[in-house]
Amino acid sequence: MTQPIPDDFFDPACPSSAMPIRVGEKWGGMVVVLLEKGPLRFTELKRPMRAVTSKVLTETLRSLERDGMVTRTAYAEVPPRVEYELTDLGRTLLGPIQACRDWATANLPALLEARAGWDG
Amino acid sequence: MTQPIPDDFFDPACPSSAMPIRVGEKWGGMVVVLLEKGPLRFTELKRPMRAVTSKVLTETLRSLERDGMVTRTAYAEVPPRVEYELTDLGRTLLGPIQACRDWATANLPALLEARAGWDG
DNA sequence: CTGTATCCGACACGATACTG
DNA sequence: CAGTATCGTGTCGGATACAG
């Protein structure tokens, strides 16, 4: 944004408004990061994300799958095996996610300090 | 993340978990971008964000203020004048926000196409 | 101009129990 | 192993009206 601010800066078609579509999700970014180095099974995702329930993890994965970020491959075996893998499109999320992680690492302490001062 | 995935990848103290604190907010990013080039008054923020109500914009600004991203300066005049300005800390958000905007510009069409295919 | 005060609906998230 | 089914809760965003 180096242009002057127009009166209709808020345009539903503006790509920026899509940020929350994927980044705003609570567990989505974590799944993407976990899948960075290769496909993982449902349980392999769930274990490190200890606070997530099966239901919510399933919802998160379906959402990522719907948006073309992740593929789901089920193998007809007993016991069942399902693998989740990043698509090329999903891989493009790694950049912005890393930018957010770097920001948090550098600036979260300052944020928390400001918040503590405001609250207390 | 180039390290092996630990079993306790989910750590509440992990800075990454703070991403939604600021970026996940619906209007927060927009306010930061609008303030990039200098302080603005309440109405000057509200006008371009046409879909936002006074209540929600106020909540957003209070939240940014609480986290030390924005300062609020009220002038004892009639009619009242209030100016909002980015802090140095708030300015650090511009990087990750821009990364998300760039991502959306480049990849939102592919996302929507995938979604349409999944839904239809 | 810069907000507050209510009320409300939607939805994300979670707890718990159960299944092929 | 990889989910589904139900139910409950809280929070966010929005509509509307009003105020200093």
- Contiguous low-pLDDT stretches of chain A (5 residues minimum) are 1-6
Radius of gyration of chain A: 18 Å
Largest sheet of chain A, in brief, is: 3 strands, antiparallel
Number of helices of chain A: 6
Shape of chain A: elongated
Kindly report the spatial arrangement of strands forming the biggest sheet of chain A: 1-3-2
Q: Whole-number average pLDDT of chain A? A: 82
Total strands of chain A: the figure is 3
Helix residue percentage of chain A: 40-55%
Distance between the termini of chain A: 36 Å
Oligomer: homodimer
**Helix and strand sequence of chain A:** HHEHHEEHH
Instruction: Work out the largest interface and the residue count of each chain.
Output: A-B, 58 and 58 residues
Task: Give the tags.
homodimer, 120 residues, mainly alpha, three-stranded antiparallel β-sheet, disordered N terminus, DNA-binding
